[in-house]
Design a protein that fits this description.
- With 581 residues, the chain is an alpha+beta fold.
- The protein is 27% helix and 27% strand.
- The protein has a 20-stranded antiparallel β-sheet, with helices on both faces.
- A hairpin with a 5-residue loop joins strand 7 and strand 8.
- 41% of the residues are buried.
Length: 581
């Protein structure tokens, strides 16, 4: 449910990549808001949009708003390990040095007395050679891959802000020049090391800082012409859906613009058809808040208003956690496996970043089972489903090859015209049993558990490899690995839904839901290798107890996500570099 943030080189080699820095900062505060305030494009006062959304140009790739309250960051330092705290501190120091220390400013003395509750940093899209732009069916030609930065500081105390703006400091023998653009004074400096710094006080409401006077002028144009994030398609309608009180951070990702940058990446170019598909999406936004047991992220994604694609508003999940035992260490559920497959085909066709292509899955199922994935299997998989990892219970003296079982559960409900999906499922499952028997020489052994008929697959070496059967409510299950059938048949009394860990981790909203995810990070990392998905993953996982996600389709144009990370409590919090800025 996340998008990768791309790292693009800075203009000066001696500066850390801003996108990398902000990506890490965004990642860390998330894992990686009704306290917002800003003046809207008109004169109305709004508290439900990203701070600076009425100044940041529409082509921004990424924007993150961070709290200026030191107590928020001190609360963050109560979580995690010394190693994870060091990562947070390192990224905050990079932000401090880039925007304050290198310009001769101290946060507590020079900025905090007048700044608002949050400050926003945004990365703008690289300049594009418009004469070289081709239709969306081909990759866009970008002539300048250097990103520009915009920092927006809302003004709470105008007189103090004016004092700072009128007499800027002079580190590294910087030469300051004043100019006027559209009636707004711009101060520009160039340091001895070639570092540019441009600032403007817009309508006595916002101090805007950039690394290029042209970018400052671009922000002023956007503000005057109302071509900002606040007027980007779907932004004002969807961002308020994730408003939270006193957020630690807020963020926004421009999906089509990020996709265009990815399309020209030298190592992983996106094919034209994938780029065209991503143009259907418009934005991904969210807020990050701190709670006593961890971090909550409320997110929303929405489609491009001009897109012909629409979402199916079917939120019919939320029951599978009542069918698996409390020993479950991972569960991913959804409302319709067939629809999930259709969406995956749509977004992954020809995409080199997809983990497995649809063609590979189809051919793999065909070669292994002689079944057609869509005609024989997915045709009846229209109900709620779940994929779970359930820990086994080793028997004394046994030499079990598996410590856990991978369990698939799918509800085969009848169709609206009365057609029995269970009959379709039973036909396919019978075919599958025959394949396992004839092609792989497995023994197919009927048995019963708690009075329920099941079927065991016994490998040629005599070990139990898999079990399948039916649960109440026309729910088919297939368990592969450790023998755990007695944990799900009959329905367990001590379910995952009733466990304290699940209840403290998986958000109850949005409700109804079209899917949930639960991961006991501690138990999973202890027993199973996890694929590397993000930088510093091991350090971040070591600070995390569990992860919970709940999703829902809000309407035919947007989807909501609530994520909660329960974190370990730090023994000794490291001093955060907020004081002495």
């Amino acid at each position: 449910m996340t998008l990768p943030i791309l790292s693009v080189p800075m203009k000066k080699r001696n500066k850390p990549s801003l996108v990398l820095t902000l990506s890490a900062a965004g990642l860390l505060v998330g894992g990686g808001a009704a306290g917002y305030w800003l003046f809207s494009q008109g004169e109305a006062f709004s508290r439900n949009l990203l701070v600076g959304a009425n100044i940041i140009p529409q082509d921004a790739l990424f924007a993150v708003s961070l709290s200026t309250d030191p107590q928020q960051w001190q609360k963050l330092q109560k979580f995690g390990t010394k190693e994870s705290q060091a990562i947070v501190n390192q990224n905050l120091l990079q932000l401090r040095d880039r925007f304050l220390t290198n310009q001769g400013y101290n946060f507590e003395q020079d900025i905090q007395p007048w700044v608002g509750e949050e400050v926003t940093l945004a990365i703008l899209a690289p300049e594009v050679n418009k004469s070289a732009i081709k239709p969306v069916s081909t990759n866009t030609e970008v002539t300048n891959n250097q990103q520009s930065m915009v920092m927006v500081l809302p003004v709470r105390n105008l007189q103090k802000a004016k004092s700072i703006f009128a007499q800027p400091k002079n580190p590294n023998q910087a030469q300051w020049k004043d100019s006027t653009y559209q009636g707004i004074t711009i101060k520009q400096s160039e340091g001895s090391r070639g570092e540019n710094f441009s600032a403007a006080l817009i309508d006595e409401r916002f101090l805007v800082i950039t690394d290029n006077i042209k970018v400052t002028e671009k922000a002023i144009d956007a503000y005057k012409n109302k071509t900002t994030l606040a007027t980007t398609g779907g932004f004002a309608e969807n961002f308020p859906k994730v408003a939270s009180y006193q957020p630690l951070a807020q963020f926004y990702v421009n999906v089509p613009n990020v996709a265009k940058i990815a399309a020209i990446a030298p190592n992983r170019r996106l094919p034209a058809q994938v780029l065209a598909q991503l143009q259907n999406n418009q934005g991904l936004a969210g807020t990050v808040t701190l709670e006593p047991e961890g971090i909550r992220i409320k997110g929303v994604s929405w489609l491009n208003p001009r897109s012909q694609r629409v979402l199916a508003v079917t939120n019919k999940a939320g029951n599978m956690q009542n069918r698996v035992p409390a020993e479950t260490i991972m569960m991913l559920s959804g409302g319709d496996l067939q629809r999930l497959w259709s969406d995956y085909v749509l977004t992954s066709q020809g995409n080199p970043l997809a983990p497995v292509t649809p063609e590979q899955l189809r051919s793999g199922v065909k070669s292994l089972t002689n079944l057609d994935l869509e005609r024989d299997l997915l045709k009846w998989m229209r109900g709620e489903f779940a994929v779970s990892l359930i820990q086994g219970t080793p028997k004394p003296g046994s030499q079990e090859d598996f410590r856990a079982a991978l369990v698939l559960m799918i509800q085969a409900n009848d169709t609206s015209d009365g057609q029995s999906r269970r009959k379709l499922a039973e036909t396919s499952i019978k075919q599958l049993d025959e394949v396992m028997k004839n092609q792989y020489q497995f023994q197919i052994q009927p048995a019963t558990v708690a009075g329920k008929p099941i079927t065991n697959w016994i490998s040629p070496y005599g070990t139990l490899t898999a079990t399948h059967g039916w649960l109440d409510g026309n729910v088919f299950f297939l368990s592969i690995g450790a023998p755990i059938t007695d944990k799900i048949v009959p329905k367990p009394n001590n379910t995952l839904a009733n466990s304290l860990a699940f209840q403290q981790t998986v958000p109850v909203e949005p409700n109804p839901t079209n899917g949930q995810f639960y991961l006991d990070v501690e138990q999973t990392a202890k027993n199973f290798p996890l694929p590397r998905l993000i930088p510093k993953q091991q350090t971040l996982l070591a600070a995390t107890r569990s992860i919970g996600v709940t999703t829902a389709v809000s309407d035919n144009r947007s989807t909501r996500y609530d994520i909660f990370l329960t974190l370990k409590k730090a023994d000794n919090s490291a001093a955060l570099p907020l004081r002495g800025y």
